[in-house]
Structures are given as C-alpha cells and as structure tokens.
Records
---
Amino acid sequence: MARKVSGLAQYRALLAKDVRQELRTREMLVSMGVYALLVLTVYGAALAQVGDRLQVVSFAGGLLWALIVFTSLLGLNRSFAHETESGCLEGILLAPIDRAVIFLAKATSNLLFLLMVEIVVVPLFFLFFLSGAQLAETTPLIVLPLLIGTVGVAGVGTLLSTMTIDTRGKDVLLAILFIPVVFPLLYACVSATSVAFMGVEGTLGTFWTSCTVAGCYDIIMVAAAWGLYEFVVSA
C-alpha cells in the first residue's frame, strides 16, 4: 500500500525542484538582473540633467518600485517556462498533489528569486542615484515595504502568470492584468518608501499606515490567489 505523502513534503519537493532548476540554469535570475541594469541605465540617461540630488530623493521611491515591478514582470513570465517547455506541468497536475501546494511552492520560489535580484539591484540603485544625496535616518526602513511588496507581487504574480501561461502574447497580457491588480499595493509601498527616503518629521504615521495597507492587501490577495488556484490551474 502506497504511503500518502504529506502536503509539507510535497511543498518541500516542489520548492526544491524550482530552486535547483533555477540555480542550474540561472535563466530567470540572469534575465531579471540584466533587465534591471538596463532600466537603471535608462534612468541614468533620463536623470542626467538633474543637478540637485535632493530632487531625485523626492521621487526615488517611485523610481525604485517601477524598477522592481517591471523586473518582476519579466521574471514572472519565465516562472513556468521550464514546466511548459518540458511538459513537466502536465505531470505535476496528474500527480496526486493539492493544487494549493503547487501555488505555495511556486509563489515561494518566485519570492526567493525576486528577493535575490533585489539584494543586488537596490544597492546599485543607491550607488547610481543616491550616493551623493543627503538621506534621512529613516532610510533603512525601506526594507519593510520592500519585503511586504515583494510578497504581494510574488503571490498575485504567480496566479496571473498561471492564467496567461498558454495564451498568445502572454507577456503583454500578464502586464495588462498584473498592473491594475497590484496597483493598490504599489501605491502603498511607494508611499511608505518615499516617506522613509525623505524622513520628514511627523510623516512616520503615514509610513506605518501605508505598510499596514500593503500588509492587508497581501493577506487578502494571497489568500484569494491560494483559494482560486485550483480553478485556474485546472481550467
């Protein structure tokens, strides 16, 4: 009699598969890294005539999150590339695995890869655009909205990338679906990040309020994606 494998064991196996596969090929990480560098280059050209660094600080939060969102889109488009090209996804769906476990494993792997890229890209952003600026003492607080925002991007993006996996023009379709859905999260994270950069006295309340809004968005949307994933992946 076959021994039933627990959901936690299935989750670990699927997550380990994604991590090993990506570390072996590095396709997703390299493509996101190169794309982020190209976006930073475009930012550099666009802001070359800005003489006062304080002006950059005032909208640095928006620039940083635009970089993260567009880089994430590229990675999310590649998140199911190996499964679809090798037919692995069909095999996973035929196996007696809870669809929610598949979602959690893929969302976790996407979260890990996005965080790995951010660990490289965010310091480069500071080096290129904020190295000569007077940053506030609250600047390290940007870690919190970055983490909260990345969790939401990975969770929602995993669901939407699954929905568009077999469609024509999936790159464009994913962006069309992703940007409006993630806009409330993006707005809250940009607000919190900008407050942390500027450090204006009396605005820390706005920072915590924005982080709370982003956290509530994560809880609601990731839970909804987790619940809907079985219907999406089986469609």
Note: The chain has a mean pLDDT of 85.
---
Amino acid sequence: MLDARLLGEFAFGFKGLELALKEQEIAPEEHLNRLENFAQRRLKGEPVARIIGVKEFYSLNFSLNEATLIPRPETELLVDLALEHIKNIKQPKILELGVGSGAILISILANKKNAKAIGVDISEQALLMAQVNAKHIGVEDRVDFLHGSWFEPIVKNEKFDLIISNPPYIKSDEIQGLQKEVKLFDPILALDGGNEGLAPYQVISNHSKTHLRENGAVIVEFGQGQEKDVEQIFLLDSYDFIAQHTDLGAVIRAIVAKK
C-alpha cells in the first residue's frame, strides 16, 4: 500500500493527504498513463525510489540516478556515529570514500554547520548527483567532490578528523543471488567487494593511517556477519581502538577505528 501511495502521489503531483482529498475527481489521462507506467516498472522489480528518483535519508530528500545506491535506513547509523565523533571538534574536516548520492556526507554537513568535507567517487555520474544534492540541501560551499578511486585524488599529506565509507562489500560470486531489486537496479560498482567482499576495507584501513589527524577516526559499514573479518583488517594495521556498533535491527553494522 505504501508503494502504491507513493507512486500515486508522484504520478499526480500530489503530496500527503492531497491524493485522498481528490479521490472523487476525474484524473487527467496523462497522469493515469504515468501511473500505469510506474506500476509496470514496479511489477518488474524496480524499487519505488528508482522510479520516482528520490529517497529520504536522515530526514532529508536525496535525488538518485543509475550510478547511485538507494540510501538505506541502516546506513543512518554511520551519520549518528560521525556526528558523535566530531561533536566537540570546532571545525572538523571529513573525507568520504565512495560518496555516491552524497547521502551520508551531506547529512553530516547539514547537522554540523562548521564542518568541511571532501567526497570521492570513481563514478562521474555519482559525483554529479552528489553535487546536485549538496546544492539542494545548501551545503555545497563546504564540500568538494573529487573523481577517482579511493585515496587516489587526495593530496599526499592531507589530514582529516574523520574518514567514513559505506564501501562495496558483496562477494563477487554472490551478486547474482541478490534480490532482483538490488542486482538489476543497483550499480555493480557500488556492490562488488571482490572475491571475499573485503577488498575495499584493506585499502581504507591501510591508507587512512597517513590521512588521519590526531584522535581521528575511520568509520565503515559492512554486511551482516563481516564484523570479525573487517575488525581483523584494522587490527593488523595497528589501529589502537576499535568499537563495533549495531543498527536498529540489532545487526552489527559498523566499526569505529582510531589510531
């Protein structure tokens, strides 16, 4: 029912109760055709957020394109952890690796007015979407978006108070077994974490060491059941403090690692 209501609101250009209040009115044929198109796409498994091109995350609306993941509620944990880490830092500097739509980074900036940030992504299309969202939410003057793979576009000695990422963590051979809403409509670049689903964490752990300010932290999300493997990667890179954190579903979803 929720999917149908959202698609109806978008097809007819209504918000909230408008759709119910006008249910006795004759619908324009153009809008009916639009709704039929949306319904057919949904029946084929396309997520509602892809159809309407917008998803709410951390009480903000983010536009999407084919190069960006749909922000998921469990990922809001990363924003909570980030805001907790930087709450006493006057002018924190943040780096997000794999910025996608910008949902994580922009949500942090929207809630920490004096923070500045860099968002990196290998997809130029994703970066364009992030720029649109940053402007729409009003943080574009505090964030730079750089094209490249992981730390590639970051200046050698540049330091950050926080490095954050929700990297690809699905094993390559498991992608075809995912729900069709994911495997058919999410960008593969944002899903495929290599043979073991851990390749990005090795890069993030190893290179973050030289880019953290004193008392800086790395925050990463991972898949269910990956916490021991991800924690071990950071331990082997000699991080002094590692804490696991659970999402609202009581799944261990992220770690905070500090040097």
Note: The first helix runs from residue 2 to 12.
